[in-house]
Amino acid sequence: MNSILITGCNRGLGLGLVKALVNLPKPPKHVFATCRNKEQAKELQDLACDNSNLHIMEIDLRNFKAYDKLVQQIDEVTAAKGLNVLFNNAGISPKSTRINMTNAEDIIETLQTNTVVPIMLAKACLPLLKKASKSQESLDLSVQRAAIINMSSMLGSIEMNETGGLYAYRTSKAALNAATKSLSIDLFSHKILCVALHPGWVRTEMGGKNAPLEVEPTTAEIIDTVMKFNATHNGGFYQHDGKKLPW
Hints:
Blueprint: E1 3-6, H1 12-22, E2 30-35, H2 42-50, E3 54-58, H3 67-77, E4 85-88, H4 104-135, E5 147-151, H5 167-186, E6 193-198, H6 215-227, E7 237-239
Parallel strand pairs: 1-2, 1-4, 2-3, 4-5, 5-6, 6-7
Keywords: NADP, Oxidoreductase
InterPro entries: Fungal_SecMetab_SDRs, NAD(P)-bd_dom_sf, SDR_fam
Pfam families: adh_short
């Protein structure tokens, strides 16, 4: 792929995805990594110093008015070749889990970050994705052409929910799954691949210290899986190793 935009790259999975991409034998020509505060993203800055193809984009993704500027900056860097992949990774998980501890503020904030942001950023980046797709008309649906990858979670699967709770997080990811399916239908004519992806339970600040998976090998596996996505995966829900998950 020529270019990819990944959100939420100051730490955790986002930072791991950036590392996996720049370490590829043939890394993307442009890796755009967003963070809310560039000064606090020290490890991301160090990576950018060692990799000229890494561009740090400072933005609060909940500020929807800032999206036009972000898109313009990407368009200028890619020399109007568009954006091959939008990887909506940024997300939050509130501490309140059970119904008696759930509050409206947590639900609203989680839905805004985990669902509304990916939808609105997809909308804003659509002209860039269309450009990339049009320039690669010989390719079928793939990340090499144009794609939106939404970082979901198996906790958003209604069928797999056997433990309840996690109202804000579960509903935000289930809603994101629904949005991903709609995107896959609406953007099919433009040959833009859309997939929901479960990264696994990874040992990050959000995942916690008891998570069984480590960031580096898992993010490397995620990139390998994403690179293999094709038309058969469009509108689907898959985990880090490529296994299909139920809605």
